[in-house]
Amino acid sequence: MPQDPIHDKAPGMERLLEVMRRLRDPNDGCPWDIEQTFDTIAPYTIEEAYEVADAIERRDWDDLKGELGDLLLQTVYHTAISAEMGLYDFHDVAEGIAQKMIDRHPHVFGDESRDKSAEQQTRDWETVKARERAQKAQKGTLDGVAVGLPALLRAEKLQKRAARVGFDWPSTDNVIDKLTEEAAELVEARDQLTEAEQVEEFGDLLFVMANLARHMGIDPEAALRGANAKFTRRFEGIEARLAAMGKRPEDSDLEEMDALWDAVKAEEKLKK
Predict the structure, then answer these.
(1) Signal sequence span per UniProt (predicted)?
(2) Per the count of CB atoms within 10 A, which of 98, 106, 236, 262 is most buried?
């Protein structure tokens, strides 16, 4: 390793680890970085993961490089804190995930046959994960589904776990029937029930929507991100058309903006 990993440019990973060590140095480090804990860094970790996904969705590969670096920094941050606590360091974490991948891919690193479908490999993967959960004394079917996951993603994972033991509707039609039922209950709650009961019914409806996505093989998070992007694109189209008329949305009304929305939508369809 170079004498000064920072300025002599040690290999990327070693240099990054040294940067973090110096940032966290209690005497000469950065006051902000020194104060950070697992809890304060966790929100940034989640945010950076979403920014990686955003760069991929935008197909911005240069931006993805930077976002991957930001996400890697989060792992370096957490492992620096854990090393200071005498728990484990970055190399321990890297070794742990390497061994996990080896253990979960006996058809690549062991003597199992690779002559099986991706679906069978997925089932084998889940079998190995179930065995690992048993070793961790996680006995319940839903044990180990992280509470901190985004709610929509956690709903999907909970439903997948339940489906493995047979607790699932047999067809998409059953889910759609349930969706209709929950929508009717939400309308009733809006008109007759308390705010807390309305929130509960709204949650039930979202939960069934996540289940419908699973049955249809749709990633609900990706679908909602797509809907968000479409709304953003079309509303920006409204703003552009209003600007061409010397107006802003505040100067317009719903009827005009709705007509412009339809125009933007029709233009998009012509481009497809």
Answers:
(1) none
(2) 106
